[in-house]
Write a structure and sequence with these properties.
Layout lengths: L1 H21 L4 H10 L3 H14 L4 H11 L6 H15 L4 H13 L3 H13 L8 E5 L6 E6 L6 H13 L3 H14 L4 H13 L3 H14 L4 H11 L3 H14 L4 H13 L3 H14 L4 H13 L3 H14 L4 H13 L3 H14 L4 H13 L3 H13 L5 H8 L2
Organism: Algoriphagus hitonicola
Pfam family, one: TPR_11
Keywords: Repeat, Signal, TPR repeat
Length: about 400
C-alpha cells in the first residue's frame, strides 16, 4: 500500500509538472515569447522564475544563456555558465554545444569553440523542436534557422573553419570551408571566408575566385567586396568610398564601422578612426578589437587617459592578451603612473617571457622608480634577446 501511494504521488507530481510546462502561460512559454520578440529583460525574468521551480531543466538554462548574451558587461560570462549547467544536466543536448561554441568563437576562445562544434557534429541527431538561429557575417541579427537533427552539416563545418582561422591554422580552416561548400555552395559567407583563408596562404588568384563567388551570391557582402579591393590594390580613395558605402548600406553593422575605422587609423586619420570605432562600440560593446583600435588612436593623439580606459575595457574581454597589457602599460607610463605601468609589464612578461619588449618596458619603468639594479637587469635581458633599442638606454643609465 505504501509503495502504491508513493507511486501515485510521483505520477501526480509528474503530471503537474508536464501540465505546467505545456500551459501557454507558463514562465517557460512566456520567456520564449519574450525572447522571440527580443524583449530580453522580460525573457530573463520569466526564465529565472522557471529555473527556480524547475532547476533540472536544461532547456531553461540554455534559453537563459541566450538571453544573457544580449546583456552588456558580465552577460557573456553568465551565458557561458548557463550553457555549461545545461550540458551537465544533459550532455547530449546538441543545441547548447552550438550556442556555447559560437560564444567561445566570439570571445576568441578558439580551441574551446572547436571542441564544442566537434561535439555538436558527433552527437546523434534525434528529433527536436528546438531551432538554432543562423548568424551571418554580414548581419547583426538572425539570417535563418536550422535544427540539430539536420542532415546538412555545412553550418557546423563553417564554424569549425572560423575556429581554425582564429588559431591561424589556415590549411585546416580551408579544408573545413571546402567541406561546408561541398554540402551547400550557395552561402556567401562560406566563400568569403574561404577567400580570406586563401589570402592568408598567399593564394591570391584563388582567393579572388572565392570572393567574387561570394559577391555573386550576395552583392552586398561588404567583407568580400573589401577583400577584393585589397587584392586588386585599388587606391585609398576607392577603398574609403567602398567602406563608406558599406556603412550606408547597413549602418547597424558594427563590422562596417570597424573596417572604415581601421582604414582611417592606418592612414593617420585618428579623429575619424575614433569616431568610427565609437559607432562600432555603440552597436556591439564586446568586440575587443574596437576597444583596442580606439585606444591606439587615442594613444596616437597622446590622449593617454582615454587610451588607458579603452585598453582597460578591452582587457575585461581578453585578460590574457599581451598586446593589450603592453599598450595599457605604456599609456599608464606616459601618465606618470609608474607603479600601475609596472604591474602591466610584470604580467606581460609572465604571459610572454620570450618577448624582449616586456623586459625593455619594465626596465625603463624600474628606472623611473629609481630601482636601477632591476632596470639594468631587464634592459640587459632585452638586449640579449635581440632588442637593439635597449642598447643606447642601457649605455646611458647603467654605466
Amino acid at each position: 500500500m505504501k509503495s502504491l501511494i508513493l507511486s501515485l504521488c510521483f505520477l501526480l507530481c509528474m503530471n503537474q509538472l508536464l501540465a505546467q510546462e505545456a500551459r501557454p502561460d507558463s514562465e517557460y512559454a512566456l520567456g520564449i515569447e519574450a525572447f522571440n520578440q527580443e524583449d530580453y529583460e522580460t525573457a530573463y525574468l520569466h526564465f529565472e522564475k522557471w529555473i527556480q521551480n524547475n532547476p533540472q531543466d536544461p532547456l531553461g538554462y540554455w534559453y537563459l544563456g541566450q538571453v544573457y548574451e544580449n546583456f552588456e558587461g558580465d552577460g557573456v560570462q553568465f551565458a557561458l555558465e548557463n550553457y555549461s549547467i545545461a550540458l551537465e544536466l544533459n550532455p547530449e543536448l546538441a543545441e547548447v554545444y552550438m550556442s556555447r561554441g559560437r560564444l567561445n568563437l566570439r570571445l576568441e576562445r578558439y580551441e574551446f569553440a572547436e571542441e564544442d562544434f566537434l561535439s555538436y557534429l558527433r552527437l546523434p541527431k534525434g528529433e527536436t523542436t528546438q531551432v538554432i538561429y543562423k548568424k551571418s557575417a554580414t548581419d547583426r541579427g538572425f539570417s535563418g534557422v536550422f535544427t540539430a537533427q539536420t542532415d546538412n552539416p555545412s553550418e557546423t563545418l563553417y564554424h569549425l573553419g572560423l575556429s581554425r582561422m582564429g588559431m591561424e591554422d589556415y590549411p585546416k580552416a580551408l579544408s573545413y570551408l571546402d567541406s561546408a561548400i561541398s554540402y551547400q555552395d550557395d552561402v556567401a559567407d562560406f566563400h568569403a571566408e574561404k577567400g580570406k583563408a586563401l589570402m592568408e596562404l598567399g593564394q591570391e588568384s584563388e582567393a579572388l575566385v572565392s570572393l567574387k563567388k561570394a559577391v555573386e551570391i550576395n552583392p552586398n557582402h561588404y567583407l568580400a567586396r573589401q577583400r577584393i579591393i585589397l587584392l586588386e590594390e585599388g587606391g585609398d580613395k576607392e577603398k574609403l568610398e567602398v567602406l563608406t558605402q558599406s556603412i550606408s548600406d547597413d549602418p547597424e553593422n558594427p563590422q562596417a564601422w570597424k573596417l572604415r575605422g581601421f582604414h582611417r587609423l592606418t592612414h593617420d586619420d585618428f579623429e575619424g578612426a575614433i569616431a568610427d570605432f565609437t559607432e562600432a562600440i555603440s552597436i556591439m560593446q564586446d568586440d575587443v578589437e574596437n576597444w583596442n583600435y580606439r585606444g591606439s588612436a587615442f594613444a596616437k593623439l597622446k590622449e593617454w587617459e582615454k587610451a588607458e580606459e579603452d585598453f582597460s575595457y578591452a582587457l575585461t574581454l581578453a585578460d590574457q592578451d599581451p598586446e593589450l597589457l603592453l599598450r595599457r602599460g605604456q599609456a599608464r607610463y606616459y601618465q606618470n603612473k609608474a607603479e600601475e605601468a609596472l604591474a602591466d609589464f610584470v604580467q606581460l612578461i609572465a604571459l610572454d617571457p620570450q618577448n624582449p619588449t616586456g623586459y625593455f618596458h619594465r626596465g625603463i619603468t624600474f628606472h623611473r622608480l629609481d630601482r636601477q639594479e632591476e632596470a639594468c637587469q631587464d634592459l640587459n635581458q632585452a638586449l640579449s634577446m635581440g632588442m637593439e633599442q635597449a642598447k643606447p638606454i642601457l649605455d646611458k643609465i647603467c654605466k
